[in-house]
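Retry 2 of 3 after timeout on previous attempt. Resubmitting structure tokens to design endpoint.
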């Protein structure tokens, strides 16, 4: 039985994840416990959302470096709205957060799709612009837990179900549902396959009548909307939000995407791999804090090394596959 490249990547990722758990378990006393799962699953719920949004953008041969600022802005603005109108129906709040995030994403998408500007330049600029908007609008003040509705801060710790001492919280369930929905959309629907077509071969996609500008714009809107939902979860988890909220999440989102097997040059990848990549990155990040042999200042360096290795491995793999196809032809 032949195994597809996508399935093989996921199996390899799972193997790496298990090997990482076993390695840190041998280095850190009392490492494998329910508390580790509960802590990491809540963090991964946030990272997985922004990573899936990033994956949509990367599939179209683009990148969104502003995603951390979007999370921070959304968390802060949503918190500000709830402080002003604490009686808002809870079901409307995540929708509002997604709308705010989608507006930021639409701004990025408009510049990239309409004017064909390099996405790395556009989003590098908007990373700073969005953060500056947050700093100016906040006037140095912070969102504090005591001024938020009780249901919001309690939501992050609400369990959907438990398995022994393992607590599976609603934020984890929501994140998993988003990942599965994105996976089904990208793999089972023609509109989803368009993202792969645009990133794989833009000229052929245009010849086939696909609207590349519309697809790229939509990718950024989706990225912004999911960053908005992540901002809502971020607000619920931490409560206290400052102007540096979400700082550095853009690196983690890119890391989860490329480690998860999405080709940084677009056209291929699987969001299930992105979920595992997000879990792996957060596992390493959390574990390095507890590993006495490594200074916490090396955490970002390890993440950068992971990204470099993932991109290099993916590039080598794709080149070999292309050579095989060329030889077979």
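Retry 2 succeeded. Sequence:
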């Amino acid at each position: 039985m032949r195994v597809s490249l996508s399935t093989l990547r996921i199996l390899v990722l799972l193997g790496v994840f298990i090997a990482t758990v076993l390695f840190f378990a041998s280095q850190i006393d009392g490492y494998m416990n329910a508390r580790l799962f509960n802590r990491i699953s809540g963090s991964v719920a946030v990272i997985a959302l922004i990573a899936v949004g990033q994956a949509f953008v990367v599939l179209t041969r683009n990148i969104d470096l502003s995603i951390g600022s979007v999370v921070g802005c959304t968390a802060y603005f949503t918190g500000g709205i709830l402080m002003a109108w604490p009686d808002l129906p809870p079901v409307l709040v995540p929708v509002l957060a997604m709308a705010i995030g989608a507006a930021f994403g639409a701004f990025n998408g408009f510049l990239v799709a309409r004017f064909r500007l390099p996405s790395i330049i556009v989003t590098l600029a908007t990373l700073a612009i969005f953060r500056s908007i947050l700093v100016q609008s906040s006037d140095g003040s912070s969102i504090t837990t005591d001024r938020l509705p009780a249901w919001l801060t309690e939501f992050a710790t609400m369990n959907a179900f438990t398995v022994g001492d393992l607590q599976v919280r609603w934020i984890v369930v929501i994140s998993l549902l988003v990942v599965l929905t994105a996976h089904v959309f990208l793999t089972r629907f023609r509109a989803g396959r368009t993202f792969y077509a645009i990133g794989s071969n833009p000229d052929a996609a245009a010849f086939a009548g696909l609207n590349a500008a519309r697809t790229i714009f939509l990718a950024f809107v989706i990225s912004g909307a999911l960053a908005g939902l992540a901002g809502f979860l971020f607000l619920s988890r931490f409560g206290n939000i400052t102007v540096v909220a979400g700082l550095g999440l853009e690196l983690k989102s890119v890391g989860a995407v490329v480690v998860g097997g999405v080709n940084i040059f677009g056209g291929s990848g699987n969001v299930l791999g992105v979920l595992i990549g997000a879990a792996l990155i957060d596992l390493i990040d959390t574990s390095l804090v507890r590993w006495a042999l490594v200074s916490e200042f090396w955490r970002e360096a390890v993440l950068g090394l992971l990204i470099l290795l993932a991109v290099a491995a993916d590039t080598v793999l794709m080149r070999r596959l292309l050579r095989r196809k060329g030889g077979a032809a």
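Attempt log closed. The mean pLDDT is 90.
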